[in-house]
Amino acid sequence: LVLATGSTPFVPPIPGHDAVGCHTYRTLADVAAIRRDARRARTGVVIGGGLLGLEAAGALRSLGLRTTVVEAADRLLALQVDEGGGAVLARIIRRLDVEVVTGARARGLQTRRGRVRAVELEDRVVPADVVIFAVGVRPDDRLARDAGLKVAERGGIVVDERCRTSDPAIYAIGECASLGGRVFGLVSPTYRMAEIVAADLAGETAPAPEFDTSTKLKLLGVDVAGFGDAFAQSPGALEVVFSDPATDRYRKLVISDDAHTLLGGILVGAAGDYAALRARMGGPIEGDLAAIAAGLAEQDDAMPDTATVCSCRNITAGTIREAVRSGCHDIAELKRCTGVATGCGSCLPLARRLLDSELAAGGITIDPSLCEHFALTRTELFALVQTENLRTFTEIIERHGTGRGCDICKPLVASILASQGKGHVLDSDHAALQDTNDRAMANLQRDGSYSVVPRIPGGEITPGQLIVIAKVAARYDLYTKITGGQRIALFGACLDQLPHIWRELVAAGFESGHAYGKSVRTVKSCVGSTWCRFGVQDSVGMAIDLELRYRGLRSPHKVKMGVSGCARECAEARGKDIGVIATEKGWNLYVGGNGGFSPSHAELLAEDLSDAELVRTIDRVLMYYLRTGDRLQRTAAWLEELPDGVAGLARVVIDDESGAAAELDAAMGEHVAGYVDEWADALADPDKLSQFVSFVNAPETFDPDLRYQRTRDQRLPMAPVGGRP
After folding, report:
1. Nearest-CA neighbor of 465 among 455, 450, 475?
2. What pLDDT was estimated at residue 2?
3. What confidence tier does 656 reach under pLDDT thresholds 50, 70, 90?
């Protein structure tokens, strides 16, 4: 038996602790209750200034409450940072409009009519409409106590180095276990405990019980990290401290008494090199010690194979190097085969440097060229087409390529031309470049037929339009399906039927949904504040506005979007390339969420944006992706390849450090102004329509009375349509 019962939040038994408005910060139910109480609150107090307490303070601040953090110790994050780091951290957090009170204990809560109104400290009273207790957890060892297992004096199931309890047939791992009188509340030690138990059960040699308690967190947007012997408890340990009040940076390195070995460190306000420093822990210090302490030294990758790169998964530098030598030549492959950077993600920059250095050491050069016909990257070719105003494949390959092109560069050039608004995909110069789907403006299915997917922004559709879709489906004997993007897809059309189907749909107000293109597809939404009692913004209206704004925008790969009207996330926005979630103050914007072979959650780019700020930021993200994304590269992989990931993206599209914002804004403005429905355009052009024939020697084959016999895999029997089986 393995006990993994976890822990429960501790609530101090002070008077009033059970009043309405008092909460712990542990579960989704806790979060929902806090949000509910915060709607009619002005002030909030978090009791506890540890990791969870500061996260809770960030939550109250984002809900618009005037927030105070009360910590009994003399500094915040007392288990992670020392006095100097705590002082810098407190100064930064106060600048974020969160009051900090340290060295103070709550004596009780003032209530009125059963609801909390204030927190009483020894020397003051702090107003509080909402109180969150984040003073720690207690191991959930009740089952072990009832079973008669040995329990530590301060709680926790006592285990040995093999994680066995006092009964050798029972193990305990995680926050319920006490090893050497200590309970670990971090993910890495829990993973190591699981590995130890798994090895023991399998009769193998268990790994050593060495637990990495390093942490790197962004609290209220502040970088904080600690690793190794952060408090210099090793005999003879020396401390090298760099503190800069002007930039709110504090860094401390703990080294051996001979100044040759790195033992640990504390980083506040500047922790970009955390992963590299942590990986060198226990090894020699190379380079200028003062520069390393100040964060000014370049980090090389000459670390031993035994150095830990990813503490979440316990992955060493040697594991990464071996994976690269075995054929993992990009970050996506490296993540899949080793698991590196799939936990907290802080090791990604170091993993990327190790990848690059190992490739270079092996003499492996990754050719970024598009293909044998273009010795350019997609980004370089995009810029040349734009600056030289090239409009045809012939012009482009004559100036910048060789040969006649191939099935790699032709569709890519077609996508670049379309994304810059340089002609319809079926213009005479462009049609031969397209993939099958773009050439038919419909998706080719496995049986040789095509699907037709009209745009239905926000999922809103009139009864009349529903009737038209039903009539079209019946007339052409099409299989219909509601898609995950809130549209109705029609399957089973032949090539020569497509224009006739489009004509009926366009007459009813529909247009191409671009389900066939590497382009912006759909913007999924919940019903938001229009109907839902939890909605705080009009998610339907925003989804419609975004879909109509970005319709027809061609990109390196397909782009899907979602807009949720509240944090309940019914539109699954964090699984989308562009995700928008409503807040009380506006919109939170997420980027880089994808499905596919390597699903990724989107990452937060900006908070509490107004409608105008949201649209402007998405404009810039999409245009920057169009210009810098690689061929067939989804936004998740693109974001990983950007320097500093989402932080680097923010510097471009929000801070405008590169000075490209105005150009990106103008490019999106040109797209919006120049949009034309591809179906309607094709219907008005006989030359384009002439391409939609099933047989070149019999162009007039369409017969509305002709029925096609097909076999379909259907989960449920379909009723006869129009009396025909």
Report:
1. 455
2. 97
3. very high
| Amino acid identity, position 412 | L
**Beta strands in 151-237, from DSSP E residues, in sequence order:** 157-159, 171-172, 177-179, 215-219, 222-228
Name the percent of the chain lying above pLDDT 90: 57
Most confident of 133-147, 196-210, 585-599: 133-147
Cα separation, 152 vs 171, in Å, equals 15
Q: Degrees (nearest 5) of the Cα angle 167, 168, 170?
A: 70
Identify whether the C-beta of residue 279 lies closer than 8 Å to the C-beta of residue 307: yes
pLDDT at 710: 55
Q: Hey, how many other C-beta atoms are within 10 angstroms of the C-beta on 235?
A: 6
The three-class DSSP label of residue 389 is coil
Per the CB < 8 A criterion, the answer to whether 211 and 367 are in contact is no
Contact (CB, 8 A) for 137 and 9: yes
Task: Report the alpha-carbon distance of residue 634 to residue 615 in Å, rounded.
Answer: 21
Please give the Cα distance from 265 to 382 (Å, whole number): 45
Rounded Cα gap, residues 9 and 25, in angstroms: 8
Residue 116 has pLDDT above 80, yes or no: yes
| Token pair listed for 587 | 């919109």
Helix axes 645-653, 661-674, angle to 10 degrees: 80
Distances (CA, A) of 219 to 57, 77, 412: 9, 11, 42
For the chain, give the longest Cα–Cα distance.
Answer: 94
Instruction: Tally helices (H) and strands (E) across the chain.
Output: 24, 30
3-state class of 179 per DSSP? Answer: strand
Specify whether the CB–CB gap between 627 and 642 falls below 8 A. no
- In the 3-class helix/strand/coil scheme, how is 283-343 assigned residue by residue? CECCCCHHHHHHCCCCCCCCCCCCCEEECCCCEEHHHHHHHHHCCCCCHHHHHHHHCCCCC
DSSP state of 594: B
Which tokens in the block code for residue 45?
Answer: 């107090």
Confidence category of residue 698, pLDDT binned at 50, 70, 90: low
What is the band of 519 on the pLDDT scale with cuts at 50, 70, 90? very high
Nearest CA to 411 out of 375, 370, 464 is that of 370
Give the pLDDT band of residue 1 (cuts 50, 70, 90).
very high
| Residues ≥6 apart with Cβ < 8 Å to 298 | none
Give one word for 326, left, alpha or beta, with left for phi > 0 and alpha for psi -120 to 50.
alpha
